[in-house]
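Figure caption, in words: inputs first, then the predicted bound structure.
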Amino acid sequence: MSRLVLEKIIQSLFAGREVQTDELVHVLSAGDPGVVSGLHTAADQKRLDMTGDAVLLRGIIEISNICIQNCQYCGLRKDNRRVHRYRMPAVEVLEAAKRIMHGGISTVVLQSGEDLATTDSISTLVRTIKSETGLTVTLSLGERDREDYRRFREAGAERYLLKHETASRPLFETMRPGSSYENRRQCLQWLKELGFETGAGNMIGLPGQCMTDLAMDLHYLNALQPDMIGIGPFIPHPETPLAQYPPGSSPLTLRVVALSRLLVPQANIPATTALGVLDKSGRINALHAGANVVMLDFTPVKYRRFYDIYPGKARALTEMDTYLPILREELAAIGRPVG
Ligand code: 5AD
Ligand code: SF4
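Bound structure (iron/sulfur cluster present):
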């Protein structure tokens, strides 16, 4: 595919015109560094036009690592007996939420595995956090009943992250045995209907995934127009069936981030932790390719190593009290103030 044609496709995306699957595949597979840098620049410009220069910070608390699912890729899968399971007591979650507030961050993300025993306590927790900190509350607790989502919303949660993981049905079904492709999409629809700001997203480099699968992810995001999009590379975990596979590629992840920005211009797109694990400058690179959000881990240190989704995750983030000023400096150095 000639450079001129590829640049035309990127221009079309920038202008908001519809593009075909094969055109996305060509951009995803482009070998010409000039084309790739053109893609990043277009996404960076779109990010500036739509969200400005400010980088939004989110504080994440990993409240439970208990999970009933058995995703092939994830260290928290229920068959991994080597991980010590925990559920944070509400007082400790509230303390962590207060640290987020005192850090000058306005949004807390409560994340867990699919730990279904927690519905009542989550609603209470959301109410307490809202009344004692005033933080915007984002939940990321996996697939639940519509009624659970409704109760979380009623308790005051404003946002919900549920990555679609992959838009390819066969890949989804291989990677998430026992989990339903339809149900996950249904959950995303429910969340939208219930008035949540909703986040989707997918992994890059899952074993067996091809460029057409990634183009389908992009089409799905384009159709859903979610408020948030999380895109991260697959990182093999030694205690999973995928231990022997190679990780996803950082450059390919950045292309998908950039294309997501062009297809869902107003979305909040984090520079994901997983990108930072693969590559020291991964998160900064993402901020130059369409991303506008950084998530900071406020999980108390004593739990952090147990939230072992993929290797390197707990290590990637040091104590927030020391890291936050460093991040502010890093962002200032690239001319991106903290929002
Ligand atoms: N590598 C990268 N990301 C992973 N996730 C789970 N396992 C891995 C892995 N091995 C991501 C999934 C999930 C989120 C909690 O973490 O996208 O939605
Ligand atoms: Fe559980 Fe989520 Fe990990 Fe799947 S990806 S095993 S649902 S924590």
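The chain has a mean pLDDT of 96.
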